[in-house]
Amino acid sequence: MAYTASPPLLSFMNPQLLKDHSSFNFYSNRLLLPTRLVQQKRSHSVNTRYRIINCRHAKVKESPSANLAAMMREPHKYFDQVIITVRSGDGGHGAILSMPNQKSDSKSQEKNNQGRRKKSLYKRDFDGSLILPMGGHGGDVVIYADESKDSLLEFHKKSRYNAKRGGNVDAMGVLTSQLHDGFAAPTLRIPVPVGTVVKRKRGMFLADLARPGDEILVARGGHGGISLLEMPEHKRKKIMALTTNVVRDDSDKVLVLGQPGEEVSLELILRVVADVGLVGLPNAGKSTLLAAITLAKPDIADYPFTTLMPNLGRLDGDPSLGALKYSSEATLADLPGLIEGAHLGKGLGRNFLRHLRRTRLLVHVVDAAAEDPVKDYRTVKEELRMYNPEYLERPYVVVLNKIDLPQAMDRLSSLIQEISKIGCDEAPSEPEKNSEEVVQALSFKSEQANKHSFGSLNGNRKEKEVDEYPRPLAVVGVSVLKGMRIDEMLREIKRFFWCVD
Ligand SMILES: Nc1nc2c(ncn2[C@@H]2O[C@H](COP(=O)(O)OP(=O)(O)OP(=O)(O)O)[C@@H](O)[C@H]2O)c(=O)[nH]1
């Protein structure tokens, strides 16, 4: 960041003095300078007085290619949040027109009045008044949820979107029967992934595009201007007073020029839409699990943080339950691994935890062959609690993975017992009753709280220990790699969604 003050004031100053004695107040954009530096003689003053110079700070812009390179290197930091600017189109202009053949036109009216029906040369309203052409409406800007999109990355490459302006009335001069309205500009439709939350840049919530096809009008195109007939002022005023659909501005001026479109800066935040969230330490086998039970093809490798962005997969219903339940499906999201201190930014940090917000069930995947699986499990729960304690109130299933390995199989039953005991029998509190709106409202609140303090809890909510939150619905040992006891695990997951016994 570089700061610049107005050159005439600073040019005469010794740069070293400036450096030593000035301080920049970032929040007020003010440069504080001792008054002697600006050569204000205050001989009577003993203390150094500071004079405030308003100045603007100029952000040294990174080149687009540098931004792009950073994005390619670390897409997980960019895929779910972006600021874009959209501008709707200006309205097209109307025109000042004159009547070429007023005499003949009035003659023809007379003739009409006499009963000889002759088609009028001009378009007329039902009351006989002339319909004059209008400038075209400027293009609106609409953002809509599109299933084929899965990230917001592309908006980092192109962050400005302008709708087209409306067409002008295609003439100046004489009114003819061929004159048409200016063309209305098409609506600019911007597709975003399902689950995108649209906010004003300053934070005002606009929409949550949680279902495919959801859309919001974010900038309305300007009205087209009207056309006027050239005629004496007093006559025009009279006509205008009788005409109701004339576009006027605040000061009651008749608008011939099209109105400008509006420009808005928007924040887009993606919150993955998934019913089940897979959480666990890196390498626990979350991606392998997703690949084993859905058609998703996530990257799988034996090094931590293979998963950088949430992967989604769909879990079909059970055919034995009949068409209704078979056709319904649950979406699973495999999240990047969490580590101790993620809430302080360690590992990949915790930002991706926002993608658990819409989930109804969590699946904790624990590497049962690890050194201390119970500690690992507690670590993940603690990180969830630090991010949003409400996550610990949600129903969850614990999957002890890698039981094909002897060290896991040997201690499986004791692990199941120990993990089943962690937590209390308390029923989940209200927001978990699957009311998306309530969950949303809570999430927004907690997001704000989290922004300000890492790990702090909402307002007056009492801080609870991990053990004071509900126990798991089930704890199952599996090997997702070898396909051991997968059915048992699926039954537990499906039981939650489709009440399978
Ligand atoms: N032996 C054995 N290995 C497994 C099993 N499941 C997964 N793995 C291995 O564990 C390693 C990590 O698996 P991933 O599915 O990438 O783990 P992850 O939890 O998604 O890891 P991150 O992407 O880092 O969060 C891979 O080498 C898998 O082959 C299992 O049931 N048994």
Description:
Residues 94-120 are annotated as: Disordered. Keywords: GTP-binding, Nucleotide-binding. One of its GO terms (molecular function) is GTP binding. The chain has helices at 7-10, 15-21, 64-73, 102-113, 154-157, 233-242, 286-293, 323-327, 373-387, 406-410, 412-421, 436-452, 486-498; strands at 2-4, 23-25, 30-34, 50-54, 56-58, 81-87, 96-98, 141-146, 160-162, 173-174, 188-193, 196-200, 205-209, 215-219, 228-229, 263-270, 276-279, 311-316, 329-334, 361-367, 396-401, 474-477. The relative contact order is 0.10. It is built from 13 helices and 22 strands. The protein has 501 residues and is of the alpha/beta class. The protein has a 6-stranded mixed beta sheet with strand order 18-19-17-20-21-22, sandwiched between helices. A 5-stranded mixed beta sheet has the order 9-6-16-12-13, with no helix packed on it. Strands 2-3-4 form a 3-stranded antiparallel beta sheet. Strand 12 (196-200) and strand 13 (205-209) form a beta hairpin. The two termini are 61 Å apart. The protein has 3 domains: 2-58, no CATH class; 78-269, GTP1/OBG domain (Spo0b-associated Gtp-binding Protein, Chain: A); 272-498, P-loop containing nucleotide triphosphate hydrolases (Rossmann fold, 3-Layer(aba) Sandwich). Guanosine-5'-triphosphate (GTP) is lined by residues 280, 282-288, 300-302, 304-307, 336-337, 401-402, 404-405, 479-482.
